């Protein structure tokens, strides 16, 4: 049987020092301001640290780092786009009374939705905007059937709480 000796993982700090140009270059391309740049550099660095034990020396370290940096950046961009869609849906909820302030039953619904955990809040907002379950599932990264189950449970909770 061939000897499959495991190579020790490269030192994290050394990798960051020697290849910070890759991380910075990718982060600059995927951000618009300094705060987002710093956050993305940190996210990429964390992912490198978590994945360093999985690095295989058969691949160039720089190629592996680019892959991680790009994947983290694209994932972050997708999350931000979903967050923006959710915010737009939330802002589009019908309001009666003063601009920006719901009233009556609408106010109760508004407060109830605001109190939900983030995933359930997004789910409810998209449901109230009449998005099909399949699209809601795609936006939130859950299955169509899971969307239906969660909406059903949320509606039951809402009925109990608004009585």
First-residue to last-residue Cα separation: 70 Å
> What is the 3D form?
elongated
- Estimate what percentage of residues fall within beta strands: under 5%
What percentage of residues falls in helices of 4 or more residues? over 70%
Question: What Rg do the Cα atoms give?
Answer: 22 Å
Number of helices: 7
Structural class estimated from helices and strands? mainly alpha
Order of helices and strands: HHHHHHH
What's the main sheet like?
none
- Unreliable parts: none
Question: Number of DSSP strands?
Answer: 0
Q: Kindly state the mean pLDDT as a whole number? A: 81
Outline the secondary-structure elements.
Layout (H helix, E strand, L loop, with lengths): L11 H18 L4 H18 L9 H31 L12 H12 L2 H11 L4 H8 L3 H19 L1
Give an overview in words:
The chain is an all-alpha fold and 163 residues long. 72% of the residues lie in helices and 0% in strands. It has seven helices and no strands. The radius of gyration is 22 Å and the shape is elongated. It starts with 11 loop residues before the first helix and ends with a helix. The mean pLDDT is 81.
């Amino acid at each position: 049987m061939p000897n499959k000796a495991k190579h020790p993982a490269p030192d994290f700090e050394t990798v960051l020092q020697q290849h910070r140009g890759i991380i910075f270059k990718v982060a600059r391309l995927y951000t618009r301001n300094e705060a987002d740049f710093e956050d993305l550099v940190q996210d990429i660095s964390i992912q490198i640290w978590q994945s360093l034990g999985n690095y295989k020396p058969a691949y160039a370290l720089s190629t592996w780092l680019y892959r991680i940096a790009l994947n983290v950046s694209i994932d972050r961009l997708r999350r931000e786009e979903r967050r923006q869609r959710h915010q737009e849906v939330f802002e589009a909820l019908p309001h009666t009374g003063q601009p920006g302030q719901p009233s009556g039953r609408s106010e109760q619904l508004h407060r109830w939705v605001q109190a939900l955990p983030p995933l359930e809040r997004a789910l409810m907002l998209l449901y109230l905007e009449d998005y099909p379950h399949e699209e809601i599932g795609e936006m939130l990264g859950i299955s169509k059937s899971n969307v239906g189950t969660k909406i059903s449970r949320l509606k039951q909770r809402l009925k109990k709480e608004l009585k």
